[in-house]
Amino acid sequence: MAVSSAPGKVYLFGEHAVVYGEPAVPCAIERRARVEATQRSDSRVRVHAQDLYLNGFSVEYAGPADDRPTVATDQSVLDLGMRYIDGAIDRARDLADQPEVGLDVTVESDLPLGAGLGSSAAVVVAGIDATARELGLELDSEEVANHAYKVEHEVQNGEASRADTFCSATGGAAKVEGDSCETIDAPNLPFVVGYDGGTGNTGELVAGVRALREEYDFAASTVESIGDLVRRGEHALDAGDVDELGRLMDVNHGLLSALGVSARSLDAMVWAAREAGARGAKLTGSGGGGCIVALDETEDTPTALGYTPECERAFRAELDTEGVRRED
Ligand code: PMV
């Protein structure tokens, strides 16, 4: 048996603009997905998923994914979770040169699905690492990041940036620009996450920004302004200037709103955090619904979010400097 875990992430800055080659800074957070893989004596693959913030599910199949019986109760769970887990298992089996080997795989996650916290990347990263190790193959974190990116890219029909998978595999704060990803220095960042209980449709939101950018010069300039802001954010990170990071997060949220990707629930949580004294707050990920991230080392923001009707759950999730790790 092999067990691996990998962290989720928030975007400190730069989502959406990163799609057009501007830099972004995702940060790994202390909330993880764990995957346990155990080789079987037959060629069946059995996947059991728990706590994916939706109903747990269990699927057993042998042979190609197309022949897989649809036994899960909730199709959206299958769509959101199963394709990523499947992709990770298949890639690790191929890498280990054992494409037909049977496995029992259990997935547990502390991360809401499709809410801007990189849950799918964390599952894929931990899934590749655990399955590969169970099959006798040790990969370093950069290799895991690379293979996990390819799985996400395939599952998301070519619409994936390297941000989530790199950050989840390596931990810490990262700078992502085009195909280049590097870990950067960061002070301890007291992240607080607010979750509205919903999800955004990343594909539709990205397409919406693309259309806006093509139609209006202001939208193209907004994307460039986000890039400028991220470059300033990198200096603030380097200097450990948390106040400046907060101010830039506030501006980043305003620019994302101008691009039409915020939502009433996200704005309500952002304002609740600001009024509670957070140094800054913004949506994280594609928007439309899901999560916001604020910076506050006190309990004021989690408490205020707890009283905000639009917030289903609030939790502290500090920067996690560790990426994928062995848990067995
Ligand atoms: O919602 P998430 O965590 O999948 O983030 C999407 C980030 C975008 O910049 C909107 C798209 C991308 O692939 O970078």
From TrEMBL:
Catalyzes the phosphorylation of (R)-mevalonate (MVA) to (R)-mevalonate 5-phosphate (MVAP). Functions in the mevalonate (MVA) pathway leading to isopentenyl diphosphate (IPP), a key precursor for the biosynthesis of isoprenoid compounds such as archaeal membrane lipids. NCBIfam families: mevalon_kin. The keyword ATP-binding applies. One of its GO terms (biological process) is galactose metabolic process. Pathway: Isoprenoid biosynthesis; isopentenyl diphosphate biosynthesis via mevalonate pathway; isopentenyl diphosphate from (R)-mevalonate: step 1/3. It holds the Pfam family GHMP_kinases_N. The gene is mvk. Homodimer. The lineage of its organism: Archaea, Methanobacteriati, Methanobacteriota, Stenosarchaea group, Halobacteria. It is found in: Cytoplasm. This is Mevalonate kinase. Its EC number is 2.7.1.36. It is an enzyme of class 2 (transferase). Its cofactor is Mg(2+). Coiled coil: none annotated. It catalyses: (R)-mevalonate + ATP = (R)-5-phosphomevalonate + ADP + H(+). Its main location: cytoplasm. The active site is at 164 (proton acceptor). ATP binds at residues 112-122. GO terms for molecular function: ATP binding; galactokinase activity; magnesium ion binding; mevalonate kinase activity. Residues 235-302 form the GHMP kinase C-terminal domain. InterPro entries: Galactokinase (IPR000705), GalKase_N (IPR019539), GHMP_kinase_C_dom (IPR013750), GHMP_kinase_C_sf (IPR036554), GHMP_kinase_N_dom (IPR006204), GHMP_knse_ATP-bd_CS (IPR006203), Mev_gal_kin (IPR006205), Mevalonate_kinase_arc (IPR022937).
